[in-house]
Design brief:
Blueprint: E1 13-15, H1 31-34, E2 39-42, H2 46-59, E3 63-66, H3 69-78, E4 83-87, H4 95-105, E5 110-115, H5 120-128, E6 133-136, H6 141-161, H7 165-171, E7 177-178, E8 181-182, H8 188-201, E9 207-210, H9 217-226, E10 235-239, H10 245-253, E11 254-255, E12 267-268, H11 270-273, E13 278-282, H12 289-301, E14 303-304, E15 314-315, E16 319-324, H13 328-334, H14 339-345, E17 348-351, H15 362-378, E18 386-387, H16 389-397, H17 403-417, E19 423-424, H18 430-434, H19 450-454, H20 457-479, H21 484-491, H22 495-504, H23 509-514
Parallel strand pairs: 2-3, 2-4, 4-5, 5-6, 9-16, 9-17, 10-13, 13-16, 18-19
Antiparallel strand pairs: 1-3, 7-8, 11-12, 14-15
Helix pairs in contact: 2-6, 3-4, 8-9, 15-17, 20-21
């Protein structure tokens, strides 16, 4: 990229762009349209603003450069800029002050914040204040091209429709449903989750979802995508834990003909399928580290090289939403998640609390699932059964270790067996009979056999502890469906503790799952 020398590091300069050919993509603008989109780049780092200017001029945009915040405010006073690309942290007058002034002086301008020190607080503060999007440093040429291209597309569409895009996109109400199902919840915790998801949805910022299995991370990913500027394209989900490394790499990046045995023809990967849309990386911490490194390259440069290829096969424009049911910081410490990938993807982290921490959401969820499944299985809502007060109390008192997914399955069971116009009582709920020992405050404790009772105190204590550990291990591993990380989280210990317990009792994960104790 050539750098144009300037007379001084702080003086503004406007240069008309040189025509160039736009790379193909979902939001390609004709040259004449780009030439009408005025871009103002504000950064006190000389080399960065010059590099941005060289790239954007080569793309066909008129670019104005400025190295001081107070000079930038003077420019915005005198002239309208369609896109304002500004560094968040500058001496004297910073990016937030320029954002506030631009929103007041020129509300149709789209302001994009840049920063080399992104944080949850600063990104959310910028979005709440009206920033159109957020660009963490360092960024690649492709990332800048894609983001400015999307902003320019929004500007031209707004001109044609007569809408002030800077205001309209921020004030639009989110779509309340995803796939015909609402994100339900009356608790303060879920209200805050939906509000945060709604704010970030209108941007291209990467989102990192955390929460236990069954809390609804994929549903929230769909919510964000469906309320984004990419909703005319696909959301492509990838379960990173479901595929072995060679197959996952091929699925993600595609492969060339003859790349491996069975590759009889070239195949595009899911990254290419998601071009222009959103890629949802579920259970990211279970993705092999070698594949994580290649994903990081795509995030940084937007280029895809298929398995078996010696060249760049595609340039993709993808928004990333990642999710994990373990603490990502712990995964980084344990070496199962790359620190740099986590840094890149957690521009906006959103945590979905478990159902047991928001029990006030259970009635509305249960009623919704009851209506949904009655219509699905019986075809009519007129004779739908109802929950008795004791049944709802029982539902709210259950720990729901499987979260919303477990509740959903229990309600479907009730619907299948319920009579029309009936009332559902606690006795009909599956866990009342099948798993009552799991219910808080219910149970008879460990069954102590005569060998324990006849032993001396210290020997009896060791026998009881051993029995407890094995039974607890079996229960917790089954609850987590064999996922040791999940089991450790449920138990409140680290994974090595569980592995040591298994070793001590001569058992394994598979043996515990099958109920074959050693």
């Amino acid at each position: 990229m050539s750098i144009t020398e300037r007379d001084g590091p702080g003086s503004p300069e406007t240069v008309r762009a040189r025509p160039s050919q736009e790379p193909s993509g979902p939001l390609t603008l004709p040259e004449e349209a780009k030439a009408t989109v005025e871009v103002l780049v504000i950064d006190d780092e000389f080399s960065l603003r010059e590099s941005c200017a060289s790239l954007l001029r080569a793309e066909g945009y008129p670019v104005t450069l400025c190295g001081r915040g107070d000079d930038a405010i003077d420019l915005v006073k005198k002239r309208h800029y369609d896109i304002v690309l500004v560094d968040l942290f500058m001496s004297q007058v910073g990016g937030m002050e320029i954002l506030a002034f631009t929103r007041e002086q020129s509300p149709a301008s789209l302001v994009i914040l840049m920063t080399g020190n992104p944080s949850v607080e600063s990104s959310l503060e910028g979005l709440r204040a009206g920033a159109w999007d957020y660009l963490p440093k360092p960024f690649s040429a492709t990332q800048l091209q894609v983001l400015i291209g999307r902003a320019a597309h929004a500007v031209t569409v707004a001109r044609e429709s007569g809408v002030e895009v800077g205001r309209a996109e921020k004030e639009a109400d989110p779509v309340p449903e995803v796939g015909g199902r609402k994100i339900l919840g009356e608790s303060l915790a879920m209200t805050e989750v939906v509000q945060l998801a709604s704010k970030v949805a209108g941007t291209d910022a990467s989102v990192f979802l955390t929460g236990e299995s069954g809390t609804g991370k994929e549903l929230l990913a769909h919510f964000i995508h469906d309320n984004s500027r990419r909703n005319s394209r696909s959301l492509v989900p990838v379960n990173c834990a479901a595929l072995p490394e060679p197959l996952l790499e091929s699925e993600m990046f595609g492969h060339t003909e003859g790349a491996f045995t069975g590759a009889t023809k070239a195949k595009p990967g899911l990254l290419e399928v998601a071009h222009g849309g959103t890629l949802f990386l579920d259970e990211l911490s279970d993705m092999p580290l070698s594949v994580q490194a290649k994903i990081l390259r795509v995030i940084q440069d937007g280029v895809v090289r298929r398995v078996g290829s010696t060249k760049v096969d595609a340039v993709v424009n993808v928004r990333f939403i990642a999710a994990t049911n373990v603490d990502p910081l712990e995964a980084v410490k344990e070496g199962t998640l790359r620190r740099d990938l986590h840094y890149r993807l957690r521009v906006v982290p959103i945590h979905i609390p478990p159902l047991r921490e928001r029990r006030e959401d259970i009635p509305v969820l249960a009623e919704s699932f009851l209506s949904e499944f009655w219509l699905n299985h019986r075809g009519s809502a007129g004779d739908m059964p109802t929950f008795s007060a004791p049944a709802m109390t029982a539902l709210q008192g259950w720990p729901w270790r499987g979260n919303v997914r477990e509740l959903r399955n229990v309600i479907e069971h009730l619907v299948v067996l319920a009579d029309p116009d009936s009332e559902i009582f606690p006795e009909a709920i599956p866990f009342i009979h099948e798993d009552m020992d799991d219910s808080p405050g219910v149970g008879t404790g460990l069954a102590l056999d005569r060998a324990v009772l006849n032993a001396d105190y210290h020997a009896a204590r060791e026998m009881v502890l051993a029995q407890f550990e094995v039974e607890y291990l079996e229960h917790i591993v089954r609850e987590a469906n064999g996922n040791i990380s999940d089991a450790a989280r449920l138990a409140g210990v680290d994974r090595t503790t569980l592995y040591r317990m298994m070793e001590r009792h001569g058992t394994s994960r598979d043996a515990l799952l099958s109920g074959l104790r050693q």
